[in-house]
Design goal:
Blueprint lengths: L14 E5 L4 H16 L3 E6 L1 H6 L1 H9 L4 E5 L5 H4 L17 H8 L3 H10 L6 E5 L5 H8 L3 E5 L3 H12 L9 E3 L8 E3 L13 H12 L3 E4 L3 H15 L3 E3 L10 H6 L10 H6 L7 E5 L8 H14 L3 E5 L7 H14 L3 E5 L4 H5 L4 E6 L3 H9 L4 E3 L6 H11 L3 E3 L18 H13 L1 H22 L4 H17 L1
Parallel strand pairs: 1-2, 1-4, 2-3, 4-5, 5-8, 8-9, 10-11, 10-13, 11-12, 13-14, 14-15
Antiparallel strand pairs: 6-7
Helix pairs in contact: 6-7, 8-10, 13-14, 13-18, 18-19
The protein binds uridine-5'-diphosphate.
The site of uridine-5'-diphosphate (UDP) has 17 residues, from α1 and α16.
């Protein structure tokens, strides 16, 4: 008699525990990543603090309705007596005093013990921890639990490669000096002010060193980018890092429902209906959209320059102004007068705007951006060319990528970073704003070429995320590699 061969049980899906940095520009892509993993059958757990969990209500609701294996786990944030921070500050965008940044990053380290307790409470250890590279304390937790760890690096591979190469050569240019980033497949010129590297200020050495060490000890990197956008930088970064780099984006391009698309983890959603306003615009690609991300706050004099510049450009515009930028009755008055004056041609959205819905609208043809990587990639993924106005961190290098390498950007011409709440003189005038907007929106042959390239990258982005596309297939491989380990 033939022996009956038992069918092996199907492999259980791998479990990814995801630890974002509590800052919108870091959390949003990791929430998207959690959805991508869960939609492809893996189990995804997002670990956040209570105030951040409450911002993810729309995301949690969507996951539940769609029956996705995605859960949100809350870890307690230490109380003000321990951190020296005001009560309720649990996210970088809630920090209103520059002196609170270092205590905030230090406070995050005390999430290690509750994370460890949560991991120990699971019937079996997760397959992998994916943590923001700024959450370096997760590396000890993973090591102690014997759990593989990937780090999520928010910016492009172009930026990360510049950062690695500049650090490897120990280059410290002096003020005013220009230097070429070594080891790059293209020429990249930076200055002391715009060179790559986070946490550069004195006092941040320990945080910086811990983050670098956590990158060195990780099993690989997950990046929100796609091979068709920066193929040579993805492979050079992988070689330089000496470990796998998973290019899985653009994360923002997967199916989502309207509620989640509108809130994207922010409770300060504007009630202005941008969608209806855009629907009424006849001409495609005619509106310039202006938004400087979740953190940058413009002091009044620059807010006014932006407004006047948009007015002078003569183009229809959709401008997002944060409530925290309208800091006095004078600014409020100026805004009211501006809104009245420009009502036939422009829309001012106060608060948090549905950026993805706006960028994907046929009427939007350009974006004045601070070059945060999420905003930049969202523009590219929707085929929208950009005016680049970098403020800090990786944004100056993202500008180089958009303008010099991809050919989809017009620089506004800033060369110095601004602090988040500073009033430093950054010499951008209404003339600069009007000139850059006009160049982007009707820049003749050059303008046409930029738009053509942006649309081409948008098309490539869409294909990368479809079955058979590079990002889709990389995600399959990532999930498979942990499925095999789980067996
Ligand atoms: N965002 C949004 N509405 C807003 C402002 C920002 O949806 O009014 C989203 C934007 O789509 C992006 C993220 O917030 O996903 C901002 O990240 P980015 O890296 O561009 O900049 P950061 O906020 O980190 O400076």
């Amino acid at each position: 008699e033939e022996p009956v061969s038992a069918t092996p049980p199907p492999p259980s899906p791998p479990h990814f525990v995801i630890v974002p940095l509590p800052a919108q520009g870091h959390t949003i892509p990791m929430v998207d990543l959690a959805f991508l993993l869960a939609e492809r059958g893996a189990r995804a757990t997002l670990v956040v603090t209570p105030a951040n969990a409450s911002r993810l209500r729309a995301a949690a609701g969507l996951a539940a309705r769609a029956n996705l294996p995605l859960e949100i786990v809350e870890l307690p944030f230490p109380p003000p007596a321990e951190t020296g921070l005001p009560a309720g500050v649990e996210n970088v965008d809630q920090v209103t005093d520059y002196a609170h940044f270092l205590p905030f990053f230090t406070a995050l380290r005390s999430l290690a013990s509750p994370l460890e307790s949560y991991l120990r409470s699971l019937p079996s250890p997760p397959s992998c921890l994916i943590s923001d590279w700024c959450q370096s304390w997760t590396s000890d937790v993973a090591t102690r639990g014997g759990i593989p760890r990937l780090f999520f690096h928010g910016p492009s591979c172009f930026y990360s490669l510049c950062d690695l190469n500049a650090a490897a050569h120990g280059l410290q240019p002096q003020h005013g000096e220009r230097f070429i980033v070594p080891g790059m497949p293209v020429r990249v010129e930076v200055t002391k002010e715009t060179r790559p590297g986070f946490f550069k200020e004195p006092g941040w050495e320990a945080i910086h060193e811990a983050s670098m060490e956590a990158m060195r000890t990780a099993d690989g990197a997950v990046v929100n980018t796609f091979v068709g956008l920066e193929s040579q930088f993805v492979s050079c970064y992988e070689t330089a890092l000496g470990k796998p780099v998973w290019a899985l984006g653009p994360f923002s391009l997967y199916n989502r429902d309207a509620d989640m698309m509108a809130s994207r983890g922010n409770d300060n959603t504007s009630d202005v209906d941008a969608q209806t306003w855009l629907d009424e615009i006849d001409e495609d690609d005619s509106v310039i959209y202006v938004n400087f991300g979740s953190l940058a706050r413009k002091p009044p004099k620059y807010l006014f320059e932006v407004g006047h510049g948009l007015e002078d450009s003569g183009k229809p515009f959709l401008w997002v102004v944060k409530e925290s930028e309208v800091i006095s009755p004078e600014v409020e008055q100026w805004m009211s007068a501006f809104v009245l004056r420009t009502a036939t041609r422009g829309l001012v959205v106060r608060g948090w705007a549905p950026q993805l819905a706006i960028l994907s609208h046929r009427a939007v043809g350009g974006f004045v951006t601070h070059c945060g990587w999420n905003s930049m990639l969202e523009a590219i993924a929707h085929g929208v060319p950009v005016v680049t106005w970098p403020h800090f961190a990786d944004q100056f290098l993202n500008e180089r990528l958009a303008v010099d390498v991809l050919g989809v950007g017009v620089p506004i011409g800033v060369t110095m970073p601004v602090m988040l709440f500073g009033d430093e003189a950054v010499p951008v005038t209404r003339g600069d704003v009007a000139r850059a907007v006009s160049a982007l929106m009707d820049g003749g042959e050059e303008g046409e070429e930029r738009r053509r390239k942006a649309k081409e990258y948008g098309e490539k982005a869409r294909r990368a995320m479809e079955k058979g596309g590079s990002s889709y297939e990389s995600l399959t491989q990532l999930i498979d590699s942990f499925t095999l380990q789980a067996m």
